[in-house]
Specification:
The protein is α+β, with helices and mostly antiparallel strands and about 475 residues long. The protein has 3 domains: about 100-310, Vaccinia Virus protein VP39 (Rossmann fold); about 320-400; about 400-470, Archaeosine Trna-guanine Transglycosylase, Chain: A, domain 4. It is about 30% helix and about 25% strand. It has helices at about 15-25, 30-35, 55-60, 85-90, 105-110, 125-135, 145-160, 170-180, 200-205, 210-230, 250-260, 330-340, 365-370, 395-400, 415-420; strands at about 45, 65, 70-75, 95, 115-120, 140-145, 165-170, 185-190, 230-240, 265, 275, 295, 305-310, 350-355, 360, 375, 380-385, 390, 405-410, 425, 435-440, 440-450, 455. Strands 5, 6, 7, 8, 9, 10, 11, 12, 13 and 16 form a 10-stranded mixed sheet that branches. A hairpin with a 2-residue loop joins strand 21 (about 435-440) and strand 22. Residues about 1-5 and about 465-475 have low confidence and may be disordered.
């Protein structure tokens, strides 16, 4: 046997992986391996809850090219740019997401007002995209089983200003036992061997093996079956991986179709860069598997993904009780006093609850999630401090600047932006009370006016993150 295609590429891929890909891709394998080894180009998805793609393009500090299958998606063309360190990132104007991953929300196509579950949501790229496509209505449950990753998920949900999301930290079986047939759409972004991550993560190359592929496939089959229990009749289920192995893709879907004949594959939206599924790559492959979708790194932007869109037979909607307000009197009075003094829009109706000393607005009746590990039951409004209400950063970032009585709106080149994001107090002549700091009309966070100064309430865990730490503005030009 002669040398394998791509053997001289750096990083060096596992020989068994090279042989498998050469057998499947044939003449395309060299282009595939070159793309997989090329410098990674950052994907940027505009947060349409805050700004339109067209408006962001006008103000973008980075050169952008469109992602063909996602109207709000772009590729940052400058490899030296650092968009994750820009203040526009801090105010939630965009999420950095691989272009292949942007196809998930496009294919699942959630509608405003629906109930949607992202079963393995961290770090939050697909979940926040789903919320934007739902126009931040209905119910989005973003679940993550690993506590540390769930913390990152919470930060991203908050940064993008999402209010109709519930964050859970549970196993799929526990969720399925409580939420049988509850959701209109469910996303399973399954843990996988991560072959698509080779370009970004050398560790994925080092740990790759066929045994890992097979272990991943066994786990994926179990998770997918649990996820299916939570799809209502007539609802849709999207299975996704960022790997190329057919054992984790076509084979998992075929096993699922045998186990759940009440589901069938939907032939989804197609794009010229999308490849079909390959039933011929597995033993006795079901011909319906051609309805699945493969994204390859050499056919379009991104590191590659696999998708299978499934629909459950039938048509029925479960009873979903509406949440009712359940605030103790002192909490209600404290919240109303703050709201009247600070905010121009009406206080949210129903769903106001107190968890410990924290006040939330929840889009889902608590009877449906009690007993589960819930990190955030909805939009975090703030904390009750005896008889006083102290607003959360999540409240500020989800509001519009027009919704707050007192606003200090700063331009991008104003040095007070850097000072605020570093945690320094600002000068101000307002009387005592809460005010909003905004960047070009987009909320950055709270300040509290005290004796002629504006006390900085930007969260400590967010300070010193980003370009403002070193003021390395030339990195962003």
């Amino acid at each position: 046997m002669g040398p394998l295609a791509g053997e001289n590429l750096a990083p060096r891929f596992p020989e068994r992986f090279l042989a498998r890909m050469q057998a499947w891709l044939g003449s395309e394998v060299e282009a595939f391996l070159q793309a997989l080894a090329s410098p990674y180009r950052t994907g940027l998805r505009v947060n349409t809850l805050k700004i339109s793609p067209e408006a962001f393009q006008i103000r973008s500090p980075f050169p952008l090219s469109p992602v063909p299958w996602c109207p709000e998606g772009f590729v940052v063309e400058d490899l030296e740019a650092r968009p994750g360190l820009h203040p526009y990132h801090a105010v939630g104007l965009y999420y950095l997401q691989d272009p292949s991953a942007m196809a998930a929300a496009i294919l699942l196509d959630p509608q405003p007002g629906e109930w949607v579950l992202d079963l393995a949501a961290a770090p939050g790229g697909k979940a926040t995209h789903l919320a934007a496509r739902m126009q931040d209505t209905g119910v989005l449950v973003a679940n993550e089983i690993q506590p540390q990753r769930a913390t990152v998920l919470a930060l991203n949900i908050e940064r993008l200003g999402i209010t109709h999301a519930i964050l859970t930290n549970e196993s799929p079986p526990r969720l399925a036992n409580q939420w049988e047939g509850l959701f209109d759409r469910v996303l399973v972004d399954a843990p996988c061997s991560g072959e698509g991550m080779f370009a970004r993560n050398p560790e994925a190359i080092r740990t790759w093996s066929l045994n890992r592929v097979r272990r991943s496939a066994a786990l994926q089959k179990a998770i997918l079956l649990e996820a299916a229990r939570m799809v209502r009749p007539g609802g849709r289920l999207l299975y996704a991986t960022c790997t190329f192995a057919p054992e984790e893709n076509e084979e998992v879907v075929e096993a699922f179709l045998r186990a759940r004949p009440d589901f069938d594959l939907v032939d989804p939206m197609r794009h010229p860069a999308f490849d079909r599924g390959h039933p011929e790559w597995i033993a006795d492959g079901d011909p319906r598997l051609i309805r699945t979708v493969r994204l390859w790194p050499h056919r379009g932007p991104g590191h590659g993904h696999f998708y299978a869109l499934l629909q459950r037979a039938g048509e029925s909607r479960p009873h979903r009780p509406k949440p009712e307000a359940d605030l103790p009197g002192r909490a209600q009075r404290a919240l109303e006093a703050f709201w009247t003094e600070t905010i121009t829009q009406p206080l949210p109706e129903g769903g106001l609850i107190l968890q410990g000393d924290q006040i939330y607005w929840t889009p889902m009746a608590p009877i449906l999630w009690r007993g589960l590990r819930v990190l955030r039951p909805g939009w975090w409004l703030g904390r009750l401090c005896q008889v006083r209400f102290e607003p959360a950063h999540a409240l500020a970032i989800a509001l519009s600047a027009k919704a707050v009585h007192r606003v200090l709106d700063l331009s991008l080149d104003d040095p007070r932006v850097t000072a605020y994001l570093q945690g320094y107090p600002l000068e101000g002549s307002w009387e005592s009370g809460w005010a909003l700091i905004a960047l070009e009309g987009f909320p950055l966070g709270w300040v509290r006016a005290e004796r002629g100064r504006l006390k900085n309430m930007y969260p400590r865990h967010l300070r010193a993150i980003g370009w403002w730490k070193t003021q390395a503005s030339k990195d962003l030009q």
